[in-house]
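BACKBONE STRUCTURE TOKENS:
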Amino acid sequence: MIAVQFLGIVIIGYLLGAIPFGVIISKLVRGIDVREHGSGSMGMTNVMRTVGTKAGLIVLVLDLLKGCAAVALAWAVFYSEPDSTVHWGQMAGGAAAVVGHSWPVYIGFRGGRGIATAAGAVMVLSWPIGLICVAVFLLMVLLFRYISLGSILGAVTLVAGMAVSYVYDWAPVSYLAFALVVAPIVILRHHANIRRLLSKTESKIGQKVKVK
């Protein structure tokens, strides 16, 4: 029974994460597929640059909620089980949501970078670690004006934070496993950004993208 519930959490978490809010909002507001413009991502940053700030913020909130919902659903399913089962269920649901956002079945597996959905999941798993990751993200964006750099370093901070929390018994090993699964996905999805950062051609925050 537990195995079936875990499978259900993974499937539902993936399907939640795969909801392409960036594509939906961009089509509703501008009649375009945001993935055909700018960086090619369906995340908040590209929507903000190609469609507008308000649209980007709406996408950000909705993508955050996908991660929150996937983890919260796991708690609702396993709340009567031992803590370890609850924690592994949360890890599975949250990680599945990030995979869904990155490779969404609804739109040909061309998704976003996963950072907002991951952040939503982390906020439910461990809000102190989530706040630290957000603080690192904001600091990098303020200092260097690269959202991609903030996202990548936020993912690295997630692994470091969960590792320290596990060592000091502040968080279960399943939360560290979540970080070790999700952070590489986020960084991998930023591979083009990393190349542009190294070549100093990455767009800074505030730059607009012309939509044909």
About this structure: Residues 2-103+114-198 form one domain. Residues 53-78 form the longest helix (26 residues). The chain is about 75% helix and 0% strand.
